[in-house]
Amino acid sequence: MTSNQEQPEAPSLDSFEVGYGKPPKHSQFQKGKSGNPKGRPKGSKSPSTLANEMFLKLVTVTVNGKPTKMPVIAALIARMLSAAMNGDLKAMKLALDTYAKYGDIANPTTIAGLMAGQTPFELTTEEYDSIAKHKLLEGVH
Fold it and tell me: How many domains does the chain have?
């Protein structure tokens, strides 16, 4: 701005314009005071935080006749695997699905490891290229 132009005057209480996005001064939030005083209290936890705390809480479980402390999630997985090994078909499916989803797929050592987490209908780009290459070769003969 050039120095020739006059700066607009700061609005006084008398000349303050009230309108959209400009509530009257007396009803505006006071400095340092919350607009929602009964809102979320400080230190309250989200459901995901509560779930993480509960699943990671240590519990005492009897393993091979000896009391052992382990996180709740580990105890639940051990219980699921025990039920699966005792012939519970639903537990078997759940155990296999859990392993396929969360098992060690970063360093697969078998074909099953390579296929873990991949449905039979998902193909990698290399597989698509290989199929396309073979289809082109078939058409040549």
Answer: 2
Helices (H), the chain: 47-56, 72-85, 89-102, 111-115, 125-140
Residue 27 tokens read as: 């009803």
Q: Supply the DSSP string of 11-44, one letter for each residue.
A: P-TTTPPPBTTB--GGGSPPTTS-S-TTSSPTT-
Q: What does DSSP assign to residue 78?
A: H
Domain, as residue range, for 121: 104-136
Q: Do 57 and 97 share a domain, yes or no? A: yes
User: Could you read off the pLDDT of 92-103 as tens digits, one per residue?
Assistant: 999 988 888 887
Q: Is residue 36 part of a domain?
A: no
Pick the range with the lowest mean pLDDT from 15-19, 43-47, 63-67: 15-19
